[in-house]
Write a structure and sequence with these properties.
Layout lengths: L17 H18 L17 E2 L9 E5 L3 E4 L2 E4 L5 H15 L4 E6 L5 H13 L4 E4 L2 E2 L4
Parallel strand pairs: 1-7, 2-5, 5-6
Antiparallel strand pairs: 2-3, 3-4
């Protein structure tokens, strides 16, 4: 019986598949761009507001943003003038309406450093009474030398 000699196969050269690699890097790039978009760009404050200094970082931005000045309280852009005798009743009604639409318990309070503390305290009281247990204050970042 004769032994047959096998032909040796030439090894195939490993080729680099560029197209799938580019697709993979594109997906990773899009993911990183979307993930690291600054949430602070969604915060809008009036020009009259001058914020105090702090260095705490908020991990997730609350959807309720309450702006307090000497003359008005604004909740997500709905402005309530404080010269109206029923102003705090309107604030309470606005908070209850927001609470019906959202289950969130966090609120972001934006106030000028010259705003009287009694207005800030009263606003916090209404937020707490409406079921907001986490109240954050918006501040300016501390300028580090």
């Amino acid at each position: 019986m004769a032994l047959k000699r096998r032909k040796s196969r030439r090894p195939m050269s490993a080729s680099l598949m560029i197209t799938p690699m580019i697709d993979m890097f594109t997906v990773i790039l899009i993911f990183l761009i979307v993930s690291y978009a600054p949430e602070q760009s969604r915060i809008q404050k009036s020009e009259q507001i001058e914020l105090p200094q702090e260095d705490f970082k908020l991990s997730r931005l609350p959807t309720l943003q309450v702006e307090v000045t000497e003359t008005y309280v604004s909740m997500n852009g709905v402005r309530i003038e404080l010269n109206n005798p029923q102003a705090w009743g309107q604030v309470e009604a606005q908070l209850q309406e927001f609470k019906r639409d959202s289950r969130e318990t966090a609120g972001l309070l934006i106030a000028d450093q010259s705003t009287p503390y009694r207005l800030i305290d009263r606003t916090i009281g209404h937020l707490s009474a409406s079921g907001f247990s986490e109240i954050y204050f918006l501040t300016q970042e501390e300028n580090k030398p």
